[in-house]
UniProtKB/TrEMBL annotation:
Entry's EC annotation: 3.1.1.4
Biological process according to GO: arachidonate secretion; lipid catabolic process; phospholipid metabolic process
Organism: Bracon brevicornis
Protein name: phospholipase A2
Keyword Lipid metabolism: yes
PANTHER family xref list: RH14732P
A Gene Ontology molecular function term of the record: phospholipase A2 activity
Group of enzyme by EC: hydrolase
Annotated ranges, domain Phospholipase A2-like central: 2-66
Needed cofactors: Ca(2+)
């Protein structure tokens, strides 16, 4: 987790959806990225006929463009 955030990094440390860290704007951006992306593949998992060899979640390009 990036210091001062609860949503930026691997997973999240938030106790509920509205819980943000000291860097609220950055945290809100990370939260939206993590929760609003409809297409993603967990680390070392297969979905949509694709295998994600990375050690982190792979998000659809449209989710990372913003």
């Amino acid at each position: 987790m990036i210091p001062g955030t609860k949503w930026c990094g691997r997973g999240n440390d938030a106790s509920k959806y509205t819980n943000l860290g000291g860097f609220g704007k950055a945290d809100a951006c990370c939260r939206k990225h993590d929760t609003a992306c409809p297409y993603w593949i967990p680390a070392l998992d297969k979905r949509y006929g694709l295998f994600n060899w990375r050690i982190s979640t792979l998000m659809h390009c449209s989710c990372d463009e913003r």
